[in-house]
């Protein structure tokens, strides 16, 4: 019986290990609060038709986040401290090992969103790349360092390391708001109606549903009382990733990443150069597409297209009537 329950928990891991920004009991497998979004204007700031608005509203109603913006936690001091915390809890109750956040996936979620296909993912990548100068304006050349201290829970169901108070809070909140605005202006369903609460999740009871059957219905504060005010260290924000909640994770345990932006003055690596090259190419293609669209919408262009189409049909009809053979002229 225990084996089947653990097997069920393992198969559920990829579904319930979703990094929602302000997750609580009802959010474990989905978000019920829907975000606010501009439904009247499209990506190009053009007015949407009524059918398009209805379609957007339907998507809005069915909002189920499957992507998120992640600040990866890579400082070994922080990750080592979290592992010590997790092991201390497991020593007190070995059943909770299945509820722990996996190695390599520690992060702070900036924003959750819904991207349903490749086109929407590409729009999301564009939004992330456009977010970078906004973040640079907010930081004004300064570093953003996140200090982690103490433990808290969301309704005793999700355990997380708290972000300490300090001057870093306001710029982080500004970045989160800028991200939400940037993605929503692209027509992407993003964010939550409740306020943003940055946190670093280390365990989640929903990862092991069978625990409830065993009588574990909440995280007992006694399990982490020795860490209640523990300083875990600081993370200097150097990267923001657009990650999938549902795609297979990387070999290091981190989420599947569609694209990234580098924050602050950090040595440029190959990945940074590739992202910058892709950004430049994408911006160039977008400019060309915009020019083509503007050209096609000009009355004189549309008139010329209609004229050429009409003349083409007339020539074809005439050729069929006269049974003309152009094969000689084509050789």
Keywords:
331 residues, 9 helices, alpha+beta, disordered C terminus, five-stranded antiparallel beta sheet, four-stranded antiparallel beta sheet
Describe this structure in words.
This protein is an alpha+beta fold and 331 residues long. It is built from nine helices and nine strands. Strands 5-2-1-8-9 form a five-stranded antiparallel beta sheet, with helices on one face. Strands 6-4-3-7 form a four-stranded antiparallel beta sheet, with helices on one face.
Overall average residue pLDDT = 79
The residue fraction in helices comes out at 40-55%
| Element-level helix/strand string | HHEHEHEEHEEHEEEHHH
Low confidence ranges: 1-17, 20-48, 324-331
Number of helices: 9
**End-to-end gap:** 79 Å
Please count the beta strands (DSSP E, at least 2 residues each). 9
Task: Report the β-strand fraction as a percent range.
Answer: 15-25%
Q: Quickly give the structural class.
A: alpha+beta
Strand order of the largest sheet: 5-2-1-8-9
What form results from the Cα inertia axes? elongated
How many strands, which pairing sense, and closed or not: the largest β-sheet? 5 strands, antiparallel
